[in-house]
Amino acid sequence: MGRQEPARWQRYLWEGPLYALLLLAAAAGLAAYQARGPQVVDVGGAHDAPYLTSFHDIEPDPRLFPAAAEYFRWTRAVVGIDFPGLGRQPVEVRLRMQAYRPNGEPAPTAGLWAGGHSIYSATITPQWQEYRVLLPAQLLAAGDLHLELHSATFRPAGDARDLGVTVDRIAIQPVGGGWVEPSWYQLGCFLGIVLLAYLLLRRLGLGRGWTAGVVAAGTLLLAYLLAAQRIWLTNYTLTLVVLLAVGWAAAAVAVPLWGRRRWAALLLLVALLRLGGILYPHFRTSDLLLHVHNAAYDARPGNLFFTEPLPDINLPAPYPPGFYVAWQPLTLLSTDLPLVMEVAGVLLDALAGLLLYLLARRLSGRRDVALLALLAQQVAPVTFWIFSWGNYANIFSRVTLLAALVLLAVGRWRWQGVRGWVGLTAAFGLVLLSHFADSLLFGGLVLAVAGLALLRAPTRRAVPRLLAALLAAGVVVLGLYYSAPPVWAALRGLFQVVQGGAGRAGGLLNPWPQFLSRVQAPVALLALPGLALLLRRTQRWPAVVLGGALLTAAAFALGLALVGFSSRYDYFILPVLALGTGAMLAGLRRRGRAGRVVVGVVALYLVANGVWTWCWLIGNYMR
What we know:
The chain is of the alpha+beta class and 623 residues long. It has helices at residues 4-13, 16-32, 184-203, 208-228, 230-234, 237-258, 262-279, 288-299, 322-327, 337-364, 367-378, 381-389, 392-410, 417-432, 436-453, 457-460, 463-482, 485-500, 512-519, 521-537, 540-560, 567-589, 593-620; strands at residues 39-42, 52-53, 58-59, 72-74, 78-83, 91-98, 109-114, 117-123, 129-135, 145-151, 166-174, 307-310, 315-318.
């Protein structure tokens, strides 16, 4: 098979649709550069950071003043302004600025510099005013514009910052007419994106026509962005090329080893989608740095018994160290710890998908059920929300929980003696050390499985070994972690809050719209009849495990419906719902052409809604 690979890639490179796509990309890119719309950065707005260097933070603080009339940034003595990939053309730079100074101090002078030379200088007034300067095409020789804004500074009383002028808006307006020479670097990246996308999809097994159609649609979308929102694309093209190159390399290595596995292709494409969104310059996340701090400054020095305050109740909560300890070897790969954690999260998410696929194959015995279940899980909006929230410990705990669920469903621990029981106990202990809230869900799951197993004589014999494994794991984890004074004190505080009720009870149906939006309504609606089909065709013990998961989810749903669904509940219930959805869609697929059309429409909706959610989160979350 290794000898066939070079010939296969050579054949892909000589396919006619590839050259048609490259011609389309070149023509569309050149045409997009002839669009002369303004490129605007709202300084102090949601998306200004990728284009500014050395500016102070946004004022007023959007978290404290979410409805302020305007937001802005103070400059330092020298700040940078970058507009990549504009094209070689004359432009007018427009800066909306003002300069406050204490009484008696003269108004400051600010100047624009390009290429180490001063090109403009003006006295900045205390009132907001737009300052304009024309730049010849020669200053955009490579199609990029890099400016420096120099200004005199002062230091207010009680403030350690050196403040120059305030900037509210920067716009680049093309002037004149005629041909706009593109940024050849950006055009080259554009062609590279098309080439790598085509090769990747072909190697993953997509047909020539489908590949050409998908890549053509992507090409036209990128050309539209290049014309309408140029700098939103041009500061990302190199990252996109590298990301597709990584995907291509992964496919080139994995496909010859495993064959054209649809589940592997789906996992790779979703992983690239997640990583691509995370690396987009406009992406913002909530708890990423919290987990980096926990791992680097608590777990690494050996402090495994730290707590963190919960924002809703302002009380400390335990953060079990399982994820932070497992993450440590990856820090040897790079000093960029946030990036290492983000990549680790994407890989863990893919591993969770693989475990669900294996579980679905085990329970159903069918590839189509497993593949459709995998699709329903991997594109669910909650899986994109979890990365925006930055809940990396939850991603790790879901992997451990699914691994334990697979072990439970396989059931070999029941007859493999001491070795199998010890392995199951170790898996239970890892779950309990992954995340506190998820460990409560898992404990409920095991107890529900044991309760259902007691109802039938053939499964009743497994109950003592199952409960003994949970008890042993709980005792060990309690002795190693939860009995530590700071952790125990945090648990006591949380228990007192739960006893008090906190006055959060609400209407029973209020949380449902949020829940349905995160797991997707078709998944929730198809899951129950699909689970009924799956349970009817499943062996006794796997059916008990699946029933226990469903019973646990129902019990927690009843309690959480009174206080609102949480991401942890969505995340826990999703694999179970995905199993049922996969079974139902696979059954419809075998009902003829009409069934296949329904499956295609539902699958297309799930993918489109998941991708739209991810795009919305990248553009709007944490703003």
